[in-house]
Amino acid sequence: MSGSIPFYQKHHLHYDRGYRSKETEATLSQYQSSSSRYSASRSASATSRSASATSRSRGLKLSSHSGLDESRLSPVTKRAKPTYLALDKENQIIGYVVPIFRGSQEFATGLSDTEEKRVRDTAAYMARRDLFTSGLEMERSEQTSRRETMRESAERISLSKRIHEHGEHFKRMNEDSLMHAPNFVIKPRSHTVWENQCVRLHCTVSGWPDPRVVWYKNNVTIDPLAHPGKFKLQSSYNVHSLEINRCDFDDTAQYRVSAMNSKGELSAFASVVVKRFKGEIDESLPAPRRDVIEDGPVSEYGITFKTHIVDTFGVSFGREGETMSLGCTVIIYPHLHRYQPEVQWYRDHVLLTESKWSHMHWSGDRATLTLTHLNKEDEGLYTLRVTTKSGYETYSAYVFVRDSDAEVEGAPGAPLDVCCLDANKDYIIVSWKQPAVDGGESILGYFVDRCEVGTNHWCQCNDTPIKFARFPVTGLVEGRSYIFRVRAVNKSGMSHPSRVSEPVAAMDPADRARMRGTSAPWTGQIIVTEEEPAEGIVPGRPRELQVTEATKNYVVLSWKPPGEKGLEGVMYYVEKCVSGSDSWQRVNTEIPVRSPRFALFDLAEGKSYNFRVRCCNSAGVGEPSDPTEATTVGDKLDIPSAPSKVVPTRNTDTSVVVSWEASHDAKELVGYYIEASLVGSNVWEPCNNKPVNATRFICHGLMTEETYVLRVRAVNAAGLSQFSEESEPVKVKAAIASPTPPYGISVLECVRDAMVLAWKQPTFIGGADITGYFVDYREVIDGVPGKWHEANIKSVSERAYRVTDLKENKKYQFQVRAANMAGVGIPSLPSDTFLCEEWTIAVPGPPYDLEIREVRSDSLVLLWRAPVYQGRDPVNGFYIDIKEADAPEEAWRGVNTKATEKTFFKIKNLKEAETYVFRVRAQNKAGVGKTSEVTDPVHAVTKPGTTEIVVDVDDDGVISLNFECSDLNADSKFVWSKNYEEITDSTRMTMETKGNMSKAIFNTPGEEDIGIYSCFVTHTDGVSASYTLSEEELKKLLEISHDHKFPIIPLKSELAVELMEKGRVRFWLQAEKISANGKVDYVFNDNLLSQGEKYKMHFDKDTGVIEMIMECLNPEDEGTFTFQLQDGKAKNQSSLVLIGDVFKQLQKESEFQRKEWFRKQGPHFIEYLSYEVTPECCVVLKCKVGNMKKETVALWYKDGRELKADEHLSFAEGVLTLEIAQISKKDAGIYEVVLKDDRGKDTSTLNLTDQGFKDLMNLVFSVIANSSTPLKITSTDEGIRLYTFVNYYNDLLQVTWHYKDSAIAFSDRVKSGVVGEQLWLQITEPTEKDMGKYAIEFHDGKDGLKRTVDLSGKAFDDAFAEFQRLKAAAIAERNRARVAGGLPDVVTIQEGKALNLTCNISGDPVPEVTWLKNDREITSDEHIILKFESGKFASFTITAVNTSDSGKYSILVKNKYGTESGDFTVSVFIPEELGGKKK
After folding, report:
1. What gap in Å lies between CA 1343 and CA 828, rounded to an integer?
2. Counting C-beta atoms within 10 Å of the first and last residue's C-beta, which end of the chain has fewer, N or C?
């Protein structure tokens, strides 16, 4: 709560060495050194200060953690954590109490000057009050003292602020210590506003890291984008606001703001109430919600809302990990456009809220609940509650969630309902529920995993599995939040992990409550007091130590802190000893615990222990608490006993109700698991995967008409009980109950003393046929009904009855009760009041007993009975009326314009999914009579699984009508009717029913059987269908019946002919079905053929294939071939005519096939000679051969000349190849390959001349073209060159260069050529006119191939610049100064001789010539003569050399294009004889 208190209180809460600056430490050291002197001064002034403090507090109670006597205080390094709230006598918070802190001067001198003066003033005041001061002087003195106190307080606050700022600096050095959960400094305030006003909710939130803030309206997230202009969210500097624009009635709600970070979550609430002026009520709007909802109209508007929940979800089954949606359509009448009901979802009577596991949506007429990721925690009874101003409606159904498939076969199901029972700084107790599925092996135990909120790293908390369904998790970091999951393990493997728990922080409950608590209300008053800093003492004994939980794995201790207050930093050591000994052993030797709870592990099971606790702080370790009683390590909680007396009863056709007697003396019972098994299977399946707390449960999802046994077991934290005894077997079928009341009582006829009544069948007949009805009547006198009387003692089976012995002109009411084998149901509601007077009207009375059958998406059939009262004349027709169910009365319209004489009618052209009602009117000669009662609403939808009547004709020609129903139960019956009158005469038809199929067989079909046949299945949801047997349909059926009685053999294929190997001819057909007794006659031109050398017959009776094979066709075989089949009384035949061109073509093909067969008896060509071109442009002639042997010879010929075998010929894997590496015109010719051995020979020829050679070369050109690289641009000293490379170049290849899609006319400036595999186009001295798109086209006799390049823009500029550079470099290289030659490297010459050297010089312009000796320039003189003649020849002459002329000589030529030098060495020697003379 650091964000909601002043900075000086922040400092006080964190007043420890970790946040001290150097200034503060110096101040404290001075304080400690002068503590003795100060304590003396303090004791002298204690009385005066306490008196003044009492007077300043004015009777207010000061709440503080410091409860120690001042005489016991001693200087300590840490201070207590006081609260600074001012309380009145009723303990109501009315303001803050600001403590006064002393500065460094105070600690150095004992008392400050200001305090000494105040003490003196206080003493003087006491004396004056006792002697002679007046009340006015007392008041002035008190005001003076108060002003001085306030001034001193301000000074101390200034000093504290500086200390706080230093502390904040050090806090930032370690941000982890700053992290804390969100806290509301200022909470949003509730508002009541007028309609169309704007309202703004704002709050201030602190926390580190910065919390994420979300606003909710009635627990639904507010999305400003979904309501543009309505809501506006703003956040700035930890101030968050929600602005609601132009409030209306729908904005009246509870608003919640939630702040969340990695340390926790906190919410604050505010309500907004929107009011309207009394005279501005909109009649279309609903009334404001009242606290008390009463049935009847809303008093403010006189509106009664009627709510209907339709299109509901049923009992649902899902599997873990799946997504499930539950939805209902809600109809509210009357419909108000702006009115929205309150829609809520419950699971097991607990309200659901929006979360990541469940999403709720209301579209205005449909409520949907989506369970995003099913877990077993989601199993339960789901209820939709829709609340309006007039009340509420609910709908409920159960959702079952099965375990997902285990990763390892036989592994148990995942645990469920993981939650945290107890959270402290040092540990958190995690609990869960055991799964119903153990995988066939008993569960060995459970592993608990933890994960810190904000990370994805899961850590296993226990090394060995634990069986107890609770476990204390230790090793947590204080203040951090964790989530937990649990896994079960058995011998087969590990289960899936459970759903994770809700996050929980590892901190003491007091700290958690303080973080979630509310700030003190601001009263506008600051009460200043003085509080002494708490001085540390050794803490006392912990109190009320006890063992709160003990299992064989761990023991949990709890205690209360010592009674002294004002102790900060109190921690605890836990000690244990074996009972009977006095050897105490400290459990937590290294780190003392902070919270007054502790979990001990690693205790010896079965041993008894005593425990005690010591307090400690910086002052030392206190005395131990009183030890606990001896505690034996073991599970204190026993596994519950098995339930008993399991009794199943019938419920529906897919469920049973099972009840049992609860386990005896079961402690901490979690619930029960129920299992069911088919009788005799011994395979048990769970009925619920989430424990139920009741002793009664409905097991759904069972198979109809199957017999089950059930068993139950109980579960608590210690484990699962043994199974109960198996129940008695129960057959799954709907339970029988008495029927619901009939309804819709109407009068069909009335005479002076009798009335004929009619009514409608009950909506639920109770699972058994209705055996009859009982009618009661009572007289109504002046609106007061009399006593009921029985009209019939014996039940009547019809839904119409004549009540006699009535009194004329008297009024009566009636009620009807239905009966079945379960008994007589409750009576219907009393009918309307009817007057008993004789009808004299001419028109007929109302038809009755309207019944609807064969409901489909676009049609249905309406049945009725003729009126009892005929009128003056007999009834001669009926009219049917229709309207939509929710349409007004004036929407009735006629279905038929012409009266029908029948008492049934098929109504067509309905709108799919529309709901309709119907009524019928009868007519006679006098006119149209009264309307019948209106039918119940009917939904025009074809139900899933709907079937129709199927007509069948069997092999014996018997015609039958067949109807199948998949929704049968034990009491269902098939009722066949003709023209909707039940068929009772068996002379025309015979009915047979087997299982869910019923058959109506025509005995002797004839014209008298024409009509509408229908079948209705009782005890179903109106399953029915009809079939109209017309005269045309009867004729077709009789023809099919005749074909079945006098059948033909069906053929899959007619007689056909095909050629076989060796040119043999096969005639064949295939019969679709023929028995082993079938016979075949083979006929040619009316002559019967028989088996022989020419004809081979075969009849495969399994496949129905009949064939006749001839070795060859001769001219005399031209004619008609016929196969005649007979199988019992069934016959058939098929013929094939082979004459004229058809016969000649077949004969020619047969002969060719025959020759081919003989050819292939020796070596032969499987594939004849052909060619292919490789990517390297090599031509390969190849052929595939077969039936080769070692002696077989293969010879190649070209133009009749045999080709000698060389490296180009090869034979591998039955393929002969000849490779032509670089094909040219000389390779054109006719190539031939001959295969021969002693069995024969075969020849293959390939013509590669003229067009054949041209086609080959075109293929070569195509390969060359496809191997070409993209056109590239390069520059030379002459211009720009475009080029491409190919894998192989052939001289016959034709290419065309294009410029701007036109062929280039070559000249001296634009040339093309080939260098190796490079094809190029040279543009000499290019200009801007040469810019554009260039292409090279390869011709291959077909489409060819083009490679293009765009020589423009930057490409041209770059190439042209490079050309200019190369050109300039070439010119410079060509014209630069050069020494062409003539100079030796070394010249050796005798002294006195003349030396003459000449070299050639070139360069344009003429170079300058310079001669050097030993790198120094020399000039021409008499001794050394230097000449440069004609700009080409340079000469070097020494007239008479001497030794001084020896050295390195250089000639340096230079012009504007460059410089070059030539070097030579001159060595002058003196002959030996001359040398001797000189000596």
Report:
1. 94
2. C
